[in-house]
Write a structure and sequence with these properties.
Blueprint lengths: L11 H34 L3 H12 L11 H42 L3 H4 L1
Helix pairs in contact: 1-2, 1-3
């Protein structure tokens, strides 16, 4: 997926397409996590769709639940969903930073690998 050390730097247009692909993966993961939260709140707390969406969005965004939880299952779900959301945040940040970090490191490696004419003698 990424260019090797011996390959030239990826052209800007292809790099932007790579960034877009990583962003789409990140958005897909957020949507999947949101769906998990909606289903979880609907099943454990019998919340309406909009209320489950609100609670899942707030936990996924790091703000915490909006509605008071009444059942043990709902409280356990919210606890695990909050931990899952925190871990997912780190994964998504990694997905979004990876192409930029790779490009920077690849560029630095290419710069360091260039030899000046005096070093060739």
């Amino acid at each position: 997926m990424y260019e090797q050390r011996s390959q030239p730097l990826l052209p800007r247009r292809r790099f932007l397409l790579r960034l877009l692909a990583h962003a789409l993966v990140a958005v897909s993961l957020v949507m999947l996590a949101l769906l998990i939260g909606i289903v979880g709140y609907s099943l454990t707390e019998r919340m309406a769709f909009v209320d489950a969406l609100l609670n899942a969005s707030m936990i996924l965004g790091g703000m915490g639940p909006v509605h008071e939880l009444h059942t043990l299952a709902g409280k356990l779900f919210a606890s695990f969903y909050a931990l899952f959301s925190g871990a997912l945040f780190l994964v998504i940040v990694g997905i979004l930073i990876a192409p930029v970090a790779h490009r920077l490191l690849h560029w630095l490696h290419l710069e360091a690998g260039e030899e000046s004419p005096s070093e060739l003698d």
